[in-house]
Amino acid sequence: MVYTANPEMAISTRGLRKSYGAVEALRGVNLDVPRGEICAVLGRNGAGKTTLISAALGLTEPSAGSVSVLGRAAGSLAARRSTGAMLQDADLPDLLTAREHLTFFASCFASPADVDTLIQRTQIGDFSDKRYKALSGGQKRRVQFAVALVGKPDLLFLDEPTTGLDQDARRAVWGRVRELADAGKTIVLTTHYLEEADALADRIVVLAGGRVIADGSASAIRQHIGGALIACETNVDETAARALPAVRSAQTRGRLLTLLSDDAASTLAALLRDDPALKELSVSKPSLEEAVAALTTEGSTGGELAPSENPRAVAGGQE
Amino acid sequence: MNRQMLSTIGAETGAGLLQAVRSPEFVLPTLALPVAFYLLFGIVLSPGSGERAAYLLATYGIFAVMGPAIFGFGAGVANERERGWLNIRRVAPVPAWGFVLARLLVTVVFGVLALIPIYAVAGFVGDVALPRQTWFLLAATHLLAVVPFSLAGLTLGFLFSASAAVAVANLVFLFFAVLGGLWLPAALFPEFLQAVARAMPSYHLAEVSLSVVDSGQAREPLTHLAIVAVMTAAFAAAAIAAWKRQENR
């Protein structure tokens, strides 16, 4: 297998593709994540986030292209020795306790974390001696998080780490992730909570349709989107709205039509002309969540799809 | 194999046994069924016939280890795969064969636990009297059967969903047991069924263990052993192919 072994990079992919039958989950991803970075991978369901992580972990063989991890082939024993992962839809055996799970995983590493210390640091002591089966969804997630840390990994993959966690538990995970980043570890996480990406990540990579469509800091992505978000209750439908002046994207959310506009004044003028009776009008700056929603809408409708070789680099210096 | 690997396999075997101890509702029937069958067919329904008790001891011993192997690997691996546990396990820096070996060791322990009551019933109730080394040779033969059946189970575990794997494992289990001549001697089968029996690994394993208990009759243990080896290799190849297939999905 050909792969770019760059030890400076925690993850390096080149032209990474993965097809499942007729479905192309990844369509040529070039991504370099330097060591020490917290990188959030965002995108809708089916954008390719989990496939990207699976490929980097060696759980799935790429259809084309290469992926290396810490300068080694993804999935090799050497790469796995320095990697930890919290997967999506992956459960531990029901009949063992968290402590037993951690003890087993510790046996897989040459110099693992101390199990008691790890239990204390990840704040799972209240239920570490209960069988996994008896835990709540959020508690199970936290045990999986602890399992991902047993090998004291240099690179940590967290696929939707805080789904199902309450606010306190989520903050506990965030705190631990920051500590790890401060200690020089690399963290790659996917999340549905944009707030989480905003709070944690140095860098945000947005995937849509198996391609990287934006890559930069949270503020760069927000700025890049620019424009204004117009929301209102109207009889103008999505298709008609996309034809209005300066409209970049349009979406219906419940009763509200949401438009991302490069020039709020001209869009509003046209909108009011078409539907003078519109209600509940608001105009705002897009949040990170809306910025990403707008980006992924563009990506999935295919109109302004950035070519894979040249993702919309929005970080300063990459523009 | 380095020390690291040994400790991982030890830990995983221990974890597997611990889980078994904590699920007696699955384990006890698997262990109780073979001895109950042996008691019924080998002893109660063939009174006063030590010869028949010895013959069926050889075949029911194969039957006894087959359950834990086919169900433990088949249904167990399918379930673990479906729950995503196998993926968590694959991320850990341990080669895949470590996982298989640990599971094999757990199955051997189960095999021993399933055999002990059968041997006890044979010796104390069925008046089966064998030289000490024959008992040990018989046990070794029976435990050897763990390997081909486990590999067959492993293939099922990779090919089928958790619920389908249970059904298919049951089917395979019954085929191997009945058509392999483990319940009733294959020699009593009509001609065409004997041909079917010869396609079953259970039949050849039974022939090997029969030659251990019953040296009077002319059998060809080495031929059957060679056939078992070929079938084991075929199951291993199938398991590896099934493994690779699901890895890329």
Defining key terms:
heterodimer, A: 319 residues, alpha/beta, 11 helices, globular, B: 249 residues
Strands, helices and their partners?
The complex is a heterodimer of chains A (319) and B (249).
Chain A: E1 9-20, E2 23-34, E3 38-42, H1 49-57, E4 64-69, E5 72-73, H2 77-81, E6 83-86, H3 98-106, H4 115-121, H5 137-149, E7 155-159, H6 167-182, E8 186-190, H7 194-200, E9 203-208, E10 211-216, H8 218-225, E11 228-233, H9 238-242, E12 247-253, E13 256-261, H10 264-274, E14 279-284, H11 288-301
Helix pairs in contact in A: 8-11
Chain B: H1 3-21, H2 24-44, H3 50-82, H4 85-91, H5 96-125, H6 132-144, H7 146-159, H8 162-179, H9 191-197, H10 201-213, H11 221-247
Helix pairs in contact in B: 1-5, 2-3, 2-5, 3-5, 3-6, 3-7, 3-8, 3-10, 6-10, 7-8, 7-11, 10-11
Description:
In chain A, helix 8 (218-225) packs across helix 11 (288-301). Mean pLDDT of chain A is 86; it is low at 299-319. In chain A, the strands form 3 sheets. Chain A has a 6-stranded mixed sheet with strand order 6-7-8-3-9-10, with helices on both faces. Chain A has a 4-stranded antiparallel sheet with strand order 2-1-4-5, covered by helices on one side. A 4-stranded antiparallel sheet of chain A has the order 12-13-11-14, sandwiched between helices. The longest helix of chain A has 16 residues, at 167-182. With 319 residues, chain A is an alpha/beta fold. Chain A is globular and about 70 Å long. Chain A is built from 11 helices and 14 strands. Chain A has helices at 49-57, 77-81, 98-106, 115-121, 137-149, 167-182, 194-200, 218-225, 238-242, 264-274, 288-301, and strands at residues 9-20, 23-34, 38-42, 64-69, 72-73, 83-86, 155-159, 186-190, 203-208, 211-216, 228-233, 247-253, 256-261, 279-284. Chain B is mostly helical. Helices cover 81% and strands 0% of the residues of chain B. In chain B, helix 7 (146-159) runs antiparallel to helix 8 and helix 10 (201-213) runs antiparallel to helix 11. In chain B, 44% of the residues are buried. The mean pLDDT of chain B is 92. Chain A binds chain B through residues 20, 57-61, 77, 80-81, 83-85, 87-93, 95-96, 100, 103-105, 107-110, 131, 144, 147, 151, and chain B through 4, 7-8, 10-12, 15, 18-19, 22-23, 80, 83-85, 87-88, 90-95, 247-249.
